């Protein structure tokens, strides 16, 4: 009986997995079983950390905005600033606001002063009409 040569499909699959794990250290880049285990772990970690990265960047942006806003006055806070932005329908997200806060504080001061003046006008109007 003649010898049967194996196909290339399994070998192609293994080389594809090896290319994924080529930067791993030790047996994690050499042995097929450990390569597949480490590939699963790596993909799980990357999926989990994408959401975590979004959360941490949002926290960083909020901290930067809050720091610049609190430099202006003691009674003014981040939450009031964001509430004022929503009331005036200003379409600036937290990422852009944080970049403005770092690069150009005066621009953020102008935006927040507009919001403060609007809030003061609204409170004065409510007091004059007797709502408050």
UniProtKB/TrEMBL annotation:
Main localisation, per the record?
plastid
**A molecular function GO annotation:** rRNA binding
Whether DNA damage counts among this entry's keywords is no
Stored InterPro entries:
Ribosomal_bL20, RIBOSOMAL_L20_CS, Ribosomal_protein_bL20_C
Secretion signal, residue range per the UniProt entry: none
Q: Where in the cell is it found?
A: Plastid, Chloroplast
UniProt entry keywords in alphabetical sequence: Chloroplast, Plastid, Ribonucleoprotein, Ribosomal protein, RNA-binding, rRNA-binding
Which superkingdom heads the taxonomic lineage of this protein's source? Answer: Eukaryota
Q: Which GO terms describe its cellular component?
A: chloroplast; ribonucleoprotein complex; ribosome
Name the job this protein performs: Binds directly to 23S ribosomal RNA and is necessary for the in vitro assembly process of the 50S ribosomal subunit. It is not involved in the protein synthesizing functions of that subunit.
Xref: HAMAP family: Ribosomal_bL20 (MF_00382)
Q: Which PANTHER family match?
A: 39S RIBOSOMAL PROTEIN L20
Membership in a protein family: Belongs to the bacterial ribosomal protein bL20 family.
Q: What is this protein called?
A: Large ribosomal subunit protein bL20c
Q: Which gene encodes it?
A: rpl20
């Amino acid at each position: 009986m003649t010898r049967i040569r194996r196909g290339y499909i399994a070998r192609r699959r293994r080389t594809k997995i090896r290319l994924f794990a080529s930067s791993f250290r030790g047996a994690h880049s050499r042995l097929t079983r450990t390569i597949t285990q480490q590939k699963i772990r790596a993909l799980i970690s990357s999926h989990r950390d994408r959401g975590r990265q979004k959360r941490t960047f949002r926290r960083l942006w909020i901290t930067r905005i809050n720091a610049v806003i609190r430099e202006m006055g003691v009674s003014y806070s981040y939450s009031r600033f964001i509430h004022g932005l929503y009331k005036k329908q200003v379409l600036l997200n937290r990422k852009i606001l944080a970049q403005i806060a770092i690069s150009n504080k005066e621009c953020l001061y102008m935006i927040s002063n507009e919001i403060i003046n609007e809030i003061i006008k609204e409170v004065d109007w409510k007091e004059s009409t007797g709502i408050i």
